[in-house]
Design goal:
Elements lengths: L11 E5 L4 H12 L3 E6 L2 H8 L7 E5 L5 H15 L2 E6 L15 H22 L3 E10 L12 H21 L5 E7 L5 H14 L3 H8 L8 H12 L10 E4 L6
Parallel strand pairs: 1-2, 1-4, 2-3, 4-5, 5-6, 6-7
Helix pairs in contact: 1-8, 3-4, 4-5, 6-7
């Protein structure tokens, strides 16, 4: 790519959930635009596979549980040691939980989902912000689920709403440093994570989960990870220099 159009040239980015479909797509796009990237994930083998086709001089990986404060500090320290100051945090790690009536919803599942999405994003920002360059960007992956409600999806939807509250608090605190903080809200993405969601929901409702979601999307299809990644790049780069505290919907119109 011509350096004149690189939007993150020389910048350091941390991507949690880096071994997943969206994390990988965002990392690849960041690298295409001149960034250096630390990929963080709980799955070391998947991290290695993702990193194997990325430029080794500008990519590092770190296995970490994003809900653990010590491991969060460790991945931030790793980024600093390898690349220096941090410019972009893409807090993208996630898990789904189950679909069940409230009386039957397993407490341990609720706690696990909240830990990854909410505590994970909280810890990522807490430990990254002191080392972030002024004028940087934080992007938190919420979901179309973060602006709606559906029976049975208690952990995931609650967590995705909570991330919006965290984002809005951060956006106000960090504005004097010109650090922009936004959430991105994908609709269904064509990947393994979404397929697991659809299988669980389809079983609970007795329907074809994929068709169920496509019928709810005005554009009539799932999104591709690369499409969502382009919106992440917008929020991570100076293209969004006057955008903070916002919920960017990338959902094919599902939230309309």
């Amino acid at each position: 790519m011509d350096i004149r159009v690189r939007k993150l040239n020389g910048k350091t980015c941390i991507v949690t959930g880096g071994a997943g479909n969206l994390g990988h797509a965002a990392a690849r796009l960041f690298l295409d635009h001149g960034a250096r990237v630390l990929l963080v994930d709980r799955d070391a083998d998947a991290l290695a596979r993702v990193a194997s086709d990325l430029p080794p001089d500008r990519v590092a990986t770190m296995r970490a549980d994003v809900a653990d404060a010590g491991q969060t500090r460790a991945y931030v320290d790793a980024a600093l040691k390898r690349f220096g100051k941090i410019d972009v945090l893409f807090s993208n790690a996630g898990n789904f939980g189950v679909v069940a009536p409230i009386a039957d919803y397993p407490d341990e599942t609720f706690d696990s989902v909240m830990a990854v999405h909410v505590r994970g994003a909280y810890l990522a920002t807490k430990h990254t912000v002191p080392h972030m360059n002024d004028g940087g960007a934080i992007v938190i992956t919420s979901s179309v689920a973060g602006v709606r409600g559906d029976a049975g999806v208690y952990a995931y939807i609650t967590a995705k709403h909570a991330q919006v509250g965290l984002m809005r608090c951060l956006a106000k605190e960090l504005a004097p440093r010109r650090i922009r903080v936004n959430t991105i809200h994908p609709g269904p993405i064509d990947n393994g994570f979404q397929l697991a969601v659809e299988q669980g929901l389809g079983t609970a409702l007795g329907v074809d989960g994929t068709a169920f979601f496509n019928d709810m999307i005005p554009l009539g299809r799932h999104g591709a990870a690369e499409e969502i990644a382009r919106s992440v790049l917008y929020l991570a780069s100076d293209d969004s220099s006057f955008t903070t505290g916002t919920t960017l919907m990338v959902d094919g119109g599902m939230s309309v």
